[in-house]
Write a structure and sequence with these properties.
- Keywords: Hydrolase, Metal-binding.
- It comes from Endosaccharibacter trunci.
- One of its GO terms (molecular function) is dihydropyrimidinase activity.
- This protein has about 475 residues and is α/β, with parallel strands linked by helices.
- A hairpin with a 2-residue loop joins strand 4 and strand 5.
- Helix 4 packs across helix 7 and helix 7 runs parallel beside helix 8.
- The longest helix has 18 residues.
- The site of one zinc ion (ZN) has 4 residues, from loops.
Length: about 475
């Protein structure tokens, strides 16, 4: 089928609309980037037609955790906002939330400006969590400005990376408490950074300098302890909290207990952690082992069942990729010292297929749950629903014509990510994006990109997401 012109009006005909709630056979009329009508027998004069026969029409994926062109560990991650978002749309993701990270001791607003400049070449919509890496009166005041004037409703904290991004409990208490008063949600990378630093030192002293030392320096209990600690801090303050890249049974259980007690704790899991285990470090091939160095590291396989169950039973709500690419020459910085290997793995192009193949096709997730954990729940938690993560009249036309039976083999040889390996290399997956529509325009169709750098828009996110701040939603005293 030929590619429709960028005419502004598009009819998606013959598909089954799959949302997080239901499946419905209906056509969709898109006008000026917005879903204008849903139904049969729509007035479609002048519209370009996309045939969705045999396909599902789903909300475009939202990846709430990416790091495009991020300076980190002496390098800059290799996918920029153009290449990274092109890879995103090729895989059915139409929005990312990246992280603006201040210089040490620096301004949060300046970081937001720097990242806004970098993101101007994005081909799909984007937003930023802003990182809090230190505490002062000016940080508090900048958080307020970011929420009020810049559409930021989430702040990120690292409990790991001692001597760089890590914050202590005092900073966490101040920041989470302040964010609560602003109606903003705090994100946390939960690993005990002191324990990691201690174990790294001990391992190096014992002569363990290769990538095998990486998982040994970050055992599951390091994540479990930090998850419990931030949950306790949030409980003390009565604040919601969002834990990024949950990789262990330990942290999943901690979130489950907190939620059972009524705490608003949200958990994110990465596509990579769901299907790849720690056997990737069990090799003397430095390049291959270093390629898999990310934090938290890949875990013993036994953790994966808990992560999948967490997604299915609602303990974990979102899936992400922590897309953070470093090529082999960058990873080689740590050839003689695993603590110097830039941490991060790619994933943005393959998250949706991996989730469909290993989630839906195995019966772990229903198609509705797939939509919930790939877009809708993220849109609700970060307060951009129903504009995003949704197929309804008035919503943004970020849509994917999803082929539930289409098959492809994942490979760095064919992917669009600007990185020289793929952690899912050779994996044959069923379920793929035939066509991706971002902001009403076809950006991926029949295996071809049709993107326009700069067509992505910044998405301002208002504070007090109802799912995080139910008191604010009802008007009751909080
Ligand atoms: N995850 C990772 O290894 N790199 C990116 C930074 C972070 O999210 O911790
Ligand atoms: Zn992290
Ligand atoms: Zn990250």
């Amino acid at each position: 089928m030929p590619l429709p012109e960028r005419s502004g009006t598009l009819l998606i005909r013959g598909g089954t609309i799959q949302t997080a709630e239901s499946a419905l056979r209906a056509d969709i009329l898109v006008r000026d980037g917005i879903i204008a009508a849903i139904g049969d027998g729509l007035d479609t004069s002048g519209a370009d037609v996309l045939d969705a026969g045999g396909l599902l029409v789903i909300p475009g994926g939202i990846d709430p955790h990416t790091h495009m062109e991020m300076p980190f560990m002496g390098e800059v991650s290799s996918d920029d906002f153009r290449t990274g978002t092109e890879a995103a749309v090729a895989g059915g993701t139409t929005m990312i939330i990246d992280f603006a990270i201040p210089e040490p001791g620096g301004s949060l607003i300046e970081a937001w400006r720097v990242w806004s400049e970098r993101a101007k070449k994005a081909v799909c919509d984007y937003a930023f969590h802003v990182c809090v890496t230190h505490w002062s009166a000016s940080v508090a005041s900048e958080m307020e400005t970011l929420v009020r004037d810049h559409g930021v409703n989430s702040f990120k904290h690292f409990m790991a990376y001692k001597g760089a991004l890590m914050v202590d409990d005092g900073v966490l208490l101040s920041s989470v408490g302040h964010a609560l008063s602003l109606g903003a949600l705090c994100n946390v990378h939960a690993e005990n950074g002191d324990a990691v630093a201690h174990l790294q030192k001990t391992l190096l002293e014992r002569g363990i300098t290769g990538p095998k030392g990486h998982p040994l320096s970050r055992p599951p209990s390091v994540e479990g302890e930090a998850a419990q600690r931030i949950i306790a801090i949030a409980d003390v303050l009565g604040a919601p909290i969002y834990i990024v890249h949950v990789s262990t049974a330990d942290a999943t259980d901690a979130i489950g207990r907190a939620r059972a007690n009524g705490q608003r704790v949200f958990g994110e899991v990465l596509a990579q952690h769901l299907v790849i285990d720690d056997s990737v470090y069990d090799t003397d091939d430095f390049r291959s082992a270093a390629a898999h160095v990310m934090s938290p590291p890949f875990r013993p396989k036994s953790h994966q069942a808990k992560l999948w169950a967490g997604l299915a039973n609602g303990t974990l709500q979102t899936t992400a990729t922590d897309h953070c690419c470093f090529c082999a020459p960058q990873k080689a910085n740590g050839r003689d010292d695993f603590t110097k290997i830039p941490n991060g793995t790619p994933g943005i192009e393959d998250r949706m297929s991996v989730l469909w193949h290993h989630g839906v096709r195995t019966g772990r997730l229903t198609p509705a749950e797939f939509v919930a954990v790939t877009s809708t729940n993220t849109a609700k938690i970060f307060n951009i629903h129903p504009r995003k993560g949704n197929v309804s009249v008035g919503a943004d036309a970020d849509l994917v014509l999803w082929d539930p039976n289409g098959t492809r083999t994942i490979s760095a040889a064919t992917h669009h990510q600007r990185v020289d390996y793929n952690v899912f290399e050779g994996m044959e997956v069923t379920g793929l994006a035939r066509t991706t529509i971002a902001g009403g325009h076809v950006v991926w169709h029949e295996n071809q990109l049709h993107t326009v750098p700069g067509s992505g828009r910044y998405v301002a996110r208002p504070p007090f997401a109802p799912i995080c701040f139910p008191h604010a939603d009802t008007g009751a005293a909080g």
